[in-house]
Each structure stands twice: as structure tokens, then as C-alpha cells.
Design brief:
Distance between the termini: 40 Å
Number of helices: 0
Radius of gyration: 14 Å
Largest sheet: 7 strands, mixed
Strand content: over 45%
Structural class: mainly beta
Number of strands: 11
Helix content: under 10%
Order of helices and strands: EEEEEEEEEEE
């Protein structure tokens, strides 16, 4: 059974930090490009960051460059999103997604809420 389970969300003050984790199971994690998306109330889901299957390449949305860092540990089947200097506009549900590099399969997690507020 395929699972992507996000954790680490919560309430944080502006300027604070959070580290999200996404634990994967049920598929060959090391052959999947992993991404973090977010969706704020009333807005479309948007790509935040993406990391290649081996972890050598990363991409970020302009709005988070210099503040967020995506990483992965293929031995632990886990992808992370380190979020620093958080702003109220970062408030959203954050989702991880896996896209296969060998097929058209993709998987989504259930999401974790991040709220940035004083």
C-alpha cells in the first residue's frame, strides 16, 4: 500500500522556522522525483520545491528561494522541507508528491497545516 505521510506542521510566529517531513512507503522511493506543494484557502495548489530522485537537483518557487530548503534521505524514504524566515503568506496546507521517473505514476500525501501568525 502506497503511503506518503507528512508531519511537522503547526503554528509558528513570523520569522520562525519549521521542518516538514514526508515519509514514503509502498513504492521505490529512490526512483521518484519528490515535491512539496502548498494550497492556501481560496487559492490554487502551487509548487513550492522539487528535488530529483538522487537529490542532486533542486528547484524552488521564487517566493521561497533563500528561505526554504528541500532535501531527501533515500535510505529513510523521507523528504524534508526546512522552512526558515516564515511569513504569514506561507500559511497553507503543505503536501508532498512523488512522481515516478520510470512510469506515469504519481502519489500525493494527505497534507499538513502550516500557520504563520503572531
Amino acid at each position: 500500500q502506497v503511503q506518503l505521510v507528512e508531519s511537522g506542521g503547526g503554528l509558528v510566529q513570523p520569522g520562525g522556522s519549521l521542518r516538514l517531513s514526508c515519509a514514503a512507503s509502498g513504492f521505490t522511493f529512490s526512483t521518484y522525483v519528490m515535491s512539496w506543494y502548498r494550497q492556501a484557502p481560496g487559492k490554487e495548489r502551487e509548487l513550492v520545491a522539487r528535488i530529483s530522485s538522487a537529490g542532486g537537483n533542486t528547484n524552488y518557487a521564487e517566493s521561497v528561494k533563500g528561505r526554504f530548503t528541500i532535501s531527501r534521505d533515500n535510505a529513510k524514504n523521507t523528504v524534508y522541507l526546512q522552512m526558515n524566515m516564515l511569513k504569514p503568506e506561507d500559511t497553507a496546507v503543505y503536501y508532498c508528491k512523488g512522481d515516478s521517473t520510470t512510469s506515469y505514476r504519481s502519489y500525493w500525501g494527505q497534507g499538513t497545516q502550516v500557520t504563520v501568525s503572531s
